[in-house]
Structure formats: structure tokens, C-alpha cells
From TrEMBL:
Organism: Bremerella volcania
Taxon lineage: Bacteria, Pseudomonadati, Planctomycetota, Planctomycetia, Pirellulales
Gene symbol of the encoding locus: gmd_2
CC cofactor: NADP(+)
Name of the protein in its database record: GDP-mannose 4,6-dehydratase
Gene Ontology molecular function, alphabetical: GDP-mannose 4,6-dehydratase activity; NADP+ binding
UniProt record similarity statement: Belongs to the NAD(P)-dependent epimerase/dehydratase family. GDP-mannose 4,6-dehydratase subfamily.
Length: 333
């Protein structure tokens, strides 16, 4: 029997890398997208003839159940979420509905259709929040600091609960920050790489940022989707921390990004209190030993390489855009 995967959040950063990864492994890949008034398929345009897309929403229980009954997946990866921590203070209820309760809706849909389906929940290091120990490992208590973190903690514990209550193969990957050229522009890494490219090309002069002292354990998203898959291939469902074991300041990311294009960051970065959070997560650092030993998983891309890859990508993308616009302007002149 062939492996059939269903990915919620397939239009997002991780969804696009996971779809590529599973196609390489020979999976039949199905993805959920939600109805939107604008085109949200930019990250998976190159895959649309290889995957099947279904319109559904984590807010709509019946649509999830119908879909699972129809496609009969062997594995479900729940990557869909209101995933931006900053917005979770503006929309705490929506965040709870999608990022928290959405997990239960999906687990219930699976339970109603077939409890042998394997389930991956995209849990988050944001659950550690005001950290109780450093580095953070699977046994570190949660102390979330945002409505997003609280919703993820709920979704994580529901996953554990369905595993323990119904003997389902359900596990939570506690992933630390992972980035890529496909990262949303609202997240700090991509905001910086995009701004650096704009400044270098003369399209902008400054970038406004918040707390440069926050520390994160940043890896490459393309490496992390393998860990998701590995978690569903074990004999028993177990939760794992996935990260690099290195931590850097937002300021370090800024420095490397500006260095890459030969500019002095101090001339272009403006600190704007608007981007400070009501409650900050000051320090995240993973202890990924369990995943290294039991899943044989290790990140491949270094922090420096990640920053440089993102800056190079945005430089190329914006240069191409600028060239096209110039050509159009010349033609119409
Ligand atoms: P992302 O790029 O923001 O993607 C989120 C996805 O969720 C998008 O496809 C989005 O669809 C979809 N979505 C949002 N609301 C939905 C709803 N009501 N119903 C169905 N789909 C909905 O996030 P990501 O970086 O790929 O992260 C994937 C998952 O891992 C998320 O659950 C995130 O919280 C979690 N996570 C991420 C990180 C990280 O550092 N990236 C770390 C730990 C955990 P649209 O395209 O329509 O917006
Ligand atoms: O890039 P961020 O918005 O990511 P954050 O809050 O760490 O959340 C990401 O990682 C989580 C895993 O730990 C995921 F679960 C979650 O879905 C998401 O992918 O902010 C990183 C840090 C924060 O400390 C923030 O205060 O950067 C700081 N920061 C400083 N200036 C800024 C800015 N963040 C943003 N977004 N924009 C700024 O201008």
C-alpha cells in the first residue's frame, strides 16, 4: 500500500518543504488550503501538478472529517496555525480557535474515521516561554508568554492526551525557530534579509526593529521537515525537541546580514518600540540530544549559512523585480 500524506498548512513555509520531501520519498501528497481572496500558492506553485489540494479550514470540523474519510491518509501532518506570535495579542481568540482548538478538531476527525492514522502536531519552543531551564529539552516545563504559546501548549497536550486516551500514534515535534527564503516577511529573520536587500539596491534606507537582544535557536526549515517525518516512522509515538543547540541574538542576525552586502548595520537599523512585545521570550536554546540519538537527526545548515542564504535570495529576487519594472517603464516611455 502506498503512503498517503495529508498536510494542513501546505501553503506555508514548512508545508512547502515537507511536500517536496514526501514527494521525493514516493508519497501521494494531499494538502489543505483555506479559501482566501488573494493567491496564497506562491510557495507551492512548482508542485501543483504533483499534489492534490483540498479547500478546508481548521475552523470547520465537518470539512476535516469529510476530507480524511475521502482521501484515507496514512499520515497527517498538522502544520496549519495562526503562526505569528506578534499577531496573537491582536487576535487571541482566533489564535486559540485555530492554533489550539484546531488541533482537537483534527484529532477528533481522525478518531472518527480511523485511529490507525499517524498524526504529527507542529508544537513549538514558544511553549517554553519564560524558560525554567537552559537548554530546553523534552522534560522542561512549559511557561508560555503569548496567546500563541498558550494555544500551542493546549494543542500539544491534546495530542498527548489522544495518544494516551485512544492509543493513537500522535506526537508533537517541539521545533525551535526555523527559517528559509520562504519565511513570511513578518518574521524577524526574513524582515531583516528583505530589508538588507532593499537597502543594498537603493530601494530603502532603513529597517525598523524591536528587541535586538532576544536570543533564538535558529535552523533551516528544509532540515526540520525530515525530523517531522522521522517522528512518524518510529515504533512508538514520542515527542521530540528539534533545534540546533546554538543560540544567537537578533542583533547577531542583523550584523551578519548587513556584513554580507558590505554595509554598516548601525547606519540603517532604527529601534522602534512598536515592535516590542507585551511579554518577551528572552532566550531559547534547544537540547536536541534525544532526537540526535533516537532519530539520528541532525541539522545540516549553519547559522551563518542560513543568514547568507536568505540575504542572497532576497537580493536576487528584488534585483529581478527591479529589472522587470525598469524594462516595463522603458517600454511604456
Ligand atoms: P506559516 O508559514 O505561517 O504557515 C501557516 C499555515 O497555516 C499556512 O499555510 C496558512 O494558510 C495555514 N493556516 C492559517 N490559518 C488556517 C486555518 N484557519 N485553517 C487552515 N489553515 C490555516 O508557518 P510555518 O513557519 O510553515 O510553520 C508551520 C507550523 O509549525 C505552524 O503550526 C507553526 O505554528 C509551527 N511552528 C513553526 C516554527 C517556525 O519557526 N517556523 C517553529 C515551531 C512551530 P494561508 O497560506 O492561507 O495563510
Ligand atoms: O521572528 P519572530 O517573530 O519569531 P518568534 O516570535 O520567535 O516565533 C517563531 O518561532 C516560534 C518557535 O519558537 C514559532 F512557534 C512561531 O510560529 C514563529 O515561527 O521573532 C523572533 C524575535 C522575538 O524575540 C521578537 O521580539 O525577534 C524579536 N524581534 C525584534 N524585532 C522582532 C522584531 N520580531 C519581529 N517579528 N519583528 C521585528 O521587527
Amino acid at each position: 500500500m502506498s503512503n498517503i500524506a495529508l498536510i494542513t498548512g501546505i501553503t506555508g513555509q514548512d508545508g512547502s518543504y515537507l511536500a517536496e520531501f514526501l514527494l521525493e520519498k514516493g508519497y501521494q501528497v494531499h494538502g489543505c488550503f483555506r479559501r482566501s481572496s488573494t493567491n496564497a500558492f506562491e510557495r507551492i506553485e512548482h508542485l501543483t501538478d504533483k499534489i492534490e489540494l483540498h479547500c478546508t479550514d481548521l475552523l470547520d470540523q465537518a470539512s476535516l472529517e469529510r476530507l480524511i474519510a475521502k482521501i484515507k491518509p496514512t499520515e497527517v501532518y498538522n502544520l496549519a496555525a495562526q503562526s505569528f506570535v506578534g499577531s496573537s495579542w491582536d487576535q487571541p481568540i482566533l489564535t486559540g480557535e485555530v492554533t489550539g482548538l484546531g488541533v482537537t478538531r483534527l484529532l477528533e476527525a481522525i478518531r472518527m474515521v480511523d485511529t490507525s492514522i499517524r498524526f504529527y502536531q507542529a508544537s513549538s519552543s514558544e511553549m517554553f516561554g519564560k524558560v525554567h531551564e537552559t537548554p530546553q529539552r523534552e522534560t522542561t516545563p512549559f511557561h508560555p508568554r503569548s496567546p500563541y504559546g498558550v494555544a500551542k501548549a493546549y494543542g500539544h497536550w491534546m495530542t498527548v492526551n489522544y495518544r494516551e486516551s485512544y492509543d493513537m500514534y500522535a506526537c508533537g515535534g517541539i521545533l525551535f525557530n526555523h527559517e528559509s527564503p520562504r519565511r513570511g516577511l513578518e518574521f524577524v529573520t526574513r524582515k531583516i534579509s528583505d530589508a538588507v536587500a532593499r537597502i543594498k539596491l537603493g530601494l530603502a534606507t532603513e529597517v525598523r526593529l524591536g528587541n535586538l537582544d532576544a536570543r533564538r535557536d535558529w535552523g533551516f526549515a528544509g532540515d526540520y521537515v525530515e525530523a517531522m517525518w522521522l517522528m512518524l516512522q518510529q515504533d512508538k509515538p514520542i515527542d521530540y525537541v528539534i533545534g540546533t543547540g546554538e543560540t544567537y541574538r537578533v542583533g547577531d542576525f542583523v550584523q551578519i546580514a548587513f556584513d554580507r552586502v558590505g554595509l554598516n548595520w548601525e547606519k540603517h537599523v532604527v529601534i522602534d518600540p512598536k515592535f516590542y512585545r507585551p511579554a518577551e521570550v528572552d532566550l531559547l536554546l534547544a537540547d536536541p540530544m534525544k532526537a540526535q540519538e533516537e532519530l539520528n537527526w541532525k541539522p545540516k545548515m549553519s547559522f551563518q549559512e542560513l543568514v547568507e542564504t536568505m540575504v542572497d535570495h532576497d537580493l536576487q529576487r528584488l534585483s529581478a523585480l527591479a529589472n522587470t519594472s525598469l524594462k516595463v517603464l522603458r517600454k511604456s516611455a
